[in-house]
Amino acid sequence: PSEHMVYYLCSRYSIVFFCLFFFCVVFFFFLMIRRPPRSTLFPSRRSSDLMAFCLWMTGLPCSGKTTIVRKLAETIPNLAILDGDELREWFSPKDFSKAARDEHNRRVAHLSKLLLKHNVPMGVSLISPYKENRANAREIIGDDTKFFEVYVNASLAQCEERDVKGMYAKAR
Which of 145, 122, 111, 142 is nearest to 56 (CA)? Predict the structure, then answer.
């Protein structure tokens, strides 16, 4: 009788231990799946918690504005890249008069305002050669705490080296 009793207790407790083990594995599995993804730059915050901003990059043509914004997009989650050359293809006429450039900057500023309204951080790379264009963009966007103007200071020689469209050669 004692031999059967030991077998009975071992089989009964082994089922309990098996059920407890199975419950722990399943709980751990669901805990790991439901964990939110983490950002590389802000490991303690979710990307939806980040404040939206507009980084308005300005400078000479081929100064590296778009390159800087693309590098930032690798570290800042959900960063929208608004490149002036890409936007001009479908957003504005291909006229490069002063009035057309002013209109293009105004349209990009309105697009930036809409993205900020929907909490999307963005990097805008436009030449924006005139102070009134940048002031107009700041006024359209409206929130000075979310608008950051950055001038990319590259020498004319560096810009001529990077010139892939041949703009500087045509100007000489």
Answer: 122
Q: In what order do the strands lie in the sheet with 122-125?
A: 80-83, 122-125, 54-59, 147-152
Q: Which two tokens stand for residue 68?
A: 């800087």
> Could you give the residue numbers annotated as active site?
128
Q: Which of 58, 59, 62 is nearest to 164 (CA)?
A: 62
47-64 residues labelled b (16+ CB within 10 A) or e (exposed): beebebbbbbbbbbbbbb
On whether the pTM is more than 0.70, the answer is: no
User: Rounded to an integer, what is the distance from CA 11 to the centroid of its chain?
Assistant: 58
Residue-wise pLDDT for 33-51, tens only, equals 555 555 544 454 455 556 7
Q: Beta-carbon neighbour count of residue 87 at 10 Å?
A: 17
